[in-house]
Predict the structure.
Amino acid sequence: MGKATPSGPWCAIVITDNTINDADVIVAGAGIIGATFATLLGRAGFNIALIEASISDSDTDESLPDPRVLAITRASEQILRRANVWAKIPSERIGNFRKMHVWDEKGNGDIRFDSAVICQPTLGYIIAGKLIQSTLQASLLNMDTVTWYRPARPALLERHGDSVVLGLDDGRRVRAGMIVAADGGNSAVRELAGITMESHDYRQSALVCTVDTEKPHDNVARQRFLTRGPLAFLPMAEPSRCSIVWSTTPEHAIDLINMDINQFQTELEIAFMGTLGKITNSGTRATFPLRRAQATQYCQPRLALIGDSAHSVHPLAGQGANLGLLDAATLAELIIAARLSDRDPGAYPVLRRYERWRRGENYKMMMLFEGFKYLFESQIESVRWFRNTGMNLMDSVPLAKEWIMCRAMGLEGDLPTFARELP
């Protein structure tokens, strides 16, 4: 296998010939989910072939505008700690929310959560996606167990008994005991494997943007359910800066994108009832369509899907990346355990255990979020009364709120070891 070390930010092993190159595991996709999975396995001694389509640094260049942030649960924090990445994220750039306030536009129902009630310092974190991505990729570039293939796209998938061969669009080929698809909602690996997605179009778009507000956010995550969809203000590290996620109709999202900055900020203040005072500044706006999707299979012999390659959910609870990280941690745990017990990590029974573990859990979360979406969008008088009464009732039952917080934070549930707090 020929090797070279080029200059620039992606100084990694580069394949320079067309022979078949061997690895233990092929990981397609170096986004947050794929990079986390590759890091967990690489730290356990697996030789990883990491396939990434992008050659530009736009996904990790923090000087370029990007309104996307992630709400990170305590379980995801633990996964990133086990990957030895969390401590490398500058603490001053990690926002956190100690409290959460949710209320309904049509009625007096509201519910509040406070991490102090369950003796926890925070409910979760708000972090720029590029910051997590760049930290993960910098860590991967320093791992001698990881070989990068960049830029490269999967073009051919072959199975040969106890191995798979992935052909890349530049003519190179990689052989391994298994391949893991983490290459997003339009996964090329999933398509090559003939796995279909069952999807439902919500006929909504999410607008994301970073805004500065007149009043400080006080580390409170806020979400108001509007007729067209929920509007969330997520507190960032700066005391008066929030990331907004506004789920609305596609037509309204286009209107919001096309507004001048003053008109947009006024519209946002009105929609949020001026809860944080005036919007004093706003950054780049972006929109993306919303849908619920689930792969018909999470695995085949020698192949597994994780993250957006396997599923997508409505963003109203900010759980998309967290579900993907749980996929990555679960699959990594099972593969590592198989090798330690002298079993074949890529064998179908190992991968089926992953599928049984995660597919059902992800589906339950999808349906829960979808139920909330339709419940809060309904304008039927009896439904409006039910949801407002239910929110107020739930707010008055401490044990119920404590259970919801623990589940949402990843402190309880059927979690992989990588997601559990270290003793």
Q: What stands out?
A: Confidence is low (pLDDT under 50) at residues 1-17. Residues 348-377 form the longest helix (30 residues). The longest strand covers residues 197-213. The two ends are 43 Å apart (CA to CA).
